[in-house]
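User: Before I run my own analysis I want an independent prediction to cross-check against. Here's the chain; please return only the structure tokens and, at the end, one sentence I can use as a sanity check.
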Amino acid sequence: MTDRIETLGHSRIQHGKLNDRIYLMKLAREDLPTLPERLADLAGAEGYSKIFAKVPAWAEARFRELGYRVEARVPGFFRSETDAVFLGLFLDPARARASDAEQIEAALHEALRREPQPATFPDELSCRPCLPADAPAMAGLYRQVFETYPFPIHDPAYLRRTMETHILYFGVWTGGELVGLSSCETDGDARAVEMTDFAVRPQWRGKNLSVALLDVMEREMRRRGFVTAYTIARSVSFGMNIAFARAGYAFGGTLVNNTNICGRFESMNVWHKRIG
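Assistant: Structure tokens:
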């Protein structure tokens, strides 16, 4: 079960029961006067407990008028000119409270104390962009690492389809075995890219593969003209938060109880970095 992506007005949203929310992924300027109310109507009709919106800073005030709170911010997200603001509206008060707040704080504290530090792949590993023929191995690795995920990355057809449109995947291999994986989800209009979908086989964890992958991803995205890189990482994951801190990313805020991942709702940390 995954949430569906639809168009509302001229804007793009994702919504469904898996994440029990609406996610405003891309706001069209012409929709702004009425879209916040239309999102609330949809959430009420479906019984969702959260609306999550990523919007340009010029739209922030309109959403805050209706009770949205700012959860995170990425400076210069849109062509290095306009900030992106991540806002949440909690329709169930219980969802606004993180039950694992102490663990979230501990992981963030550990990440923020780390200095940027480069990493390279062990000699026995190689990294390359993934091809459509790799999709079954990619889906298999994602199934092993993530019990649930907000997008259908367990489906080889979805992976192949997104390769053709806006996502570049990178794989780490030893011989013919895929041991690490990540993706660059590009927004060509904003010249921004989300560094996401990191998965490493258990026996290869602790070797800084994510930091090394980030370096490869950043160099390729910079070559393609992207300016801002960001991620939405599991806030309780010491490893992922440390990886982004070590790669020179800045902390942008926490999205509370935002995503159904690994079988439960989790809060997510936003990290960002200018790469162009």
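Sanity check: The chain has two domains: 4-96, 101-274.
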